[in-house]
Predict the 3D structure of the following.
Amino acid sequence: MRIDCCYCGPRGHEEFVYLGDATVERPNGDPDQPLDEAARQRWVDYVYLRDNPAGAHRELWQHVSGCRAWLVVTRNSLTHAVLQVEAARDVALGRGLHQKPTPAL
Amino acid sequence: MSEQTSSPDRPQAPQFSVATRSALVGKDGRTGTRGQSCRLPTGGLIERARSHSFTFDGRSYAGHPGDTLASALLANGVHLVGRSFKYHRPRGILTAGPEEPNALVELREGARREPNTRATTAELYNGLIARSQNRWPSLRFDLMAINSLLAPILSAGFYYKTFMWPSAFWEKVYEPLIRRAAGLGRAAGKADPDTYEKAHLHCDVLVIGGGAAGLMAALAAGRTGLRVVLTEQDFRLGGRLIADNRVLDDRRSVDWVAHMAGELAGLPNVRMLLRSTVFGVYDHGTYAALERVSDHIAVPPQYEPRQRLWHIHARRCVLAAGAIERPLVFGDNDRPGVMLAGAVRAYLNRYAVAPGRHAVVFSTSDETAATVADLARAGVGIAAVIDPRASVPHGIEAAARAAGARLIGGGVIIRALGRARVRAVEIRTATGAIERIACDLVCVCGGWTPSIHLASHLGGRPAWSDRLAAFLPAALPGGMAAAGAANGQLALADALAAGAEAGLEAAAQCGASGQPVAVPATDGESTFNAALWRVRAARGKAFVDLQNDVTDEDVALAGHEGFRAGEHLKRYTTLGMATDQGKTSNVTGLALMAEFTAKPIAQTGSTTFRPPYTPVAIGALAGGHRGKEFRPTRLAPSHNWACERGARFVEAGQWLRAQFYPQPGETDWLTSVKREVRTVRSRVGLCDVSTLGKIDVQGADAVEFFDRVYSASWKALPIGKARYGLMLREDGMVLDDGTVARLTAERYVVTTTTANAAKVLQHMEFCAQWLWPELDVQLASVTDAWAQFALAGPCARHLLHKVVDGQHDVSDAAFPYLAAGQVTVMGGLPARLFRISFSGELAYEIAAPAGYGEALWRHMMESGREFGVEPYGTEALGIMRIEKGHVAGNEINGHTTAADLGLGRMLSGAKDFVGRVMAQRPGLMAADRPRLVGLKPVDRQDCLRAGAHFIRAGAKPTGREDEGYMTSAAFSPTLDHWVGLGLLVHGPERHGEQVRAYDPVRGGDVAVEVCHPVFYDPTGERLRG
Amino acid sequence: MAELDHPFRSALAGAVTAGGQYGRRSACPGVVVSEIHAPGLAMVAARKGRRGDLIAAVRAGFGVDLPTTPRRATGQEIAFVWVGPDQWLALQHPAPKDGMEGLLAPLAGLASLVEVSHGRTLFALTGSRVREALAKGVPIDLHASAFGPGDAASTLVAHIPVNLWQVDDRPSYEFAIARSLAQSFWQWLTVAAAEYGVQFADG
């Protein structure tokens, strides 16, 4: 299997590590937030529960033996076709959920 | 080939060479064809001027360069070459290619002995040594042939039926028995002396197969200027074109092939790999090919590998793998001398060998005409041409008439007679009469099976063609197209045209254009085949799969017992298993199953094919990665010194670390290690800890980042200080521990454990890039940049004073416990100093640029001589950390929480961090979780072992009573008895209690006392000293 | 790094002989290897949101346009190799007197600077058979039509992480290998190139 790293070009899978589902979102873990049943459920979902779609799937991979970028790879789990590769950092920033806690330099 | 024209320079019908076989070959190897009683006097692609001598089962023979072992054996009249897998029936040579099911031999001797080598592909070389296999005591007289008498119980599924109980018998009785009786060759049992290598190859168009279609495809694509790779498993290009006598554009086919090879060789962008089999297709245009670099010589030349594994990356691929001829199923169709007709033509034309003197041809294909013509031209007598069709095509009739052969239309062979060699066939004529015809060669052809294997390696199912009575590629892997016989284009003209078109199309898909290649005109032919899956009412055993001794009755039985799907048929009967993977038998097996279950073949389905297409040695897959080179080795900065000092090393991940440093006179490791521990506890020791992961962290948000990835808060960490930190996984378990030192306002250096260095960096990069990309934080691994040495012991500061340059105050007051700073050493060398301790002694870690590491180490050993400094290795390090109750990999094992390890106080409640929420789950907070304790043997003479389970005193040692286990144990030279760490239910509340450390696997059962995990200096006075 | 009396030790010390031949003996070895001794190396990583400023500062200060794809850009003495998004490996040989962090100090605030001069061993490889030898481990396509002077890549060779770049079209390449793995890389190289003959030239 080869992944077309958006920075380095197509490389063999041995250069990458797989993490898993890129669609799960880390819940707010702020201790000031109440850890009610709904919050607990969100955490269980985030840590343990995964969909296993037959077809296009967004996954996190790291090009660990290349540019070390974490990537969001959209892959068809039936055919292994790699449909899209994006930089995870850009995808994460695009979610727009991130507020800087401290002023930037 | 009903209208085959004569070759331009057809050889005169030769006088059959009946030279007496000379038992001995001339010492100079120059024997000509002497002794090769079945070698034709002219023709063939062999080098007659030179001879190769070889032995088979200890007997010497001669052949020529250009021969395979099979052709050379046949040239010497040797047909009996092996015994079958299950019934030990005598077997001969069926084919002339890699599909061979029978002629498997042990090649070479000693450590190079290689079992199950196909004689039909083994290229002859001078001095080749081969032995038959699966016979005892000899090939001609095989006692195991008694298995034939047991045939009734050795039918399909016999494993499952016969050896069901008692189950204990499987391992001790049945399996060894079966393995001895049924089997293939013997492995060498010694280390392979040859080398294997891997290599990468990139191209635009990969053409698999150098036959008619492949040559055309390679030329069409090659002329566009693209990078083309052409692979051919044989040592000669041409495929069927060098096995058959064909005419292309007024050239003999062998000459046309030579012409094509010359043109391709002239294209610098075309690379031809002979002796190379593409055996696997993988995702996204990746192909694996095995090149047999030196298999055709006795011993590989120095510096050259035996075989090379190519990883080929191709944008497009043309599969031109040809087709495999099918045998016919009739009684005792496995007798030596029963051969595929196409193989017989290959032996006649390519190798100039007559595999018999009186042939019978039994075929359902129109190609019979070519077989008859080739036999006749070689002077082989043709006793009969048998065609099951009532109305035999005119071409066959004409060929038979020309050869003076009797034609039996509407007839079938019901049985072959003879044991070690066929001597006659029993036929049933159209009228039902049974007749016996003497012969020593039976040429059979049941049509051709396209070699579609590679087309379905990615799971694509082939499609059944009624017209061809064969499966054809469908749902091909991305980028692949099939052409020629592999795609069902069996006629030469069709294959040539399809190859040319596929080559051009593949080039076009790569964005290159070119002129169509002119397709040569060919002599006419008919490739029509009237499928006959088995001869009904045959006598004797009618084999479908020769390699696995599967008969038509076995297939019927499988169907009867419900194992009807292709995959079930395979597993129940073993049809299609082993080294040939059913290349000559799969389709027939499925067709028979369809017949027995009264279903169309298309509905019976095909088994799918997986890599490898032909067997690949494990050595080739390993390449250079074996022995010491199994994986790369990382060497620490003091490695060279440690070697000089005679250190013993241990592998820690990829690192080679000094385990201990024996001194003269020390004969066992414990003596050395005890001395090293005592040196540290009483004077000062040096340990190379460069292997710890080191990560440089910078950025305005570095502290915020640490707050989120570590469990404790870092906001209060001042410049010039280090602190111990704990990292959790998001599920609440401990991931790793280490230190964070703050060097400047926005610059930190993090250490990780040696084992988790790579994992922690990946995790931190994940956090920085994916979880919190808004943070200004940059990470860089500096593990290799710095040599880092621990100096530990009461005299550590004295030694430090002699190393660190005078302007730096490293007194206890100025540089207290957990201080961190930048200093210079040895007169101006920039270094980093950390006052941290793993041993529990006054200790420092000093880091210097790695290239000066050895110099610093030598300097410290020299300077520390007056304090009695000694190096210490990982064993002493491990003992001292157990004495101090420090957790390490045995405790941070992915199943433990911070609280389990007594580190619960390190979880901040005031901020979010990875693992915080999940660590609060009731199950992870439960009071009865096994938690960290220390353990010492009640009888101080007793030895402790990690892995022993804790059982309450007086309780039965059962799983229910299991209360935890010993994670680490060591002999403490400081306390003079064994100490251990373990995880025990309610452990911290049970100090003073005695429990059993029960180790049934190794027979251990020791009473131990539960205690605090810190055995040594519990108040930490020494490290602050 | 400061000049010291204490000897700098190459990671290859003891494993190679300057001028030594490995593998097949040949008057004209197919692969010629040398070690670039004690180079100055630093990781340069743009601070959050400062990539543009960093690129401008490098252009102004060093006359180099920082590549934003896997390439190597060279200035008068210094070179920058793209090794990851917003990350470069800065090289200068011989190493500057005050170390790379000193040389690059004008970039402070725009980039994190990490001296790694001792963290990598630099190999220079050339020779008539160098591409064939490298194909036995380098998984990427080094054919002239696919990879040329100035191109760079990070990949795995025989399980060893490498940064490599092409210097000229003889062709010559440079490989940066983690110091601790330098001998393993050398071991692989001598085996891979043995059939062409290897000369270890004195760098």
Summary: Residues 51-62 of chain C form the longest helix (12 residues). The mean pLDDT of chain C is 95. The first strand of chain C starts at residue 21 and ends at 22.
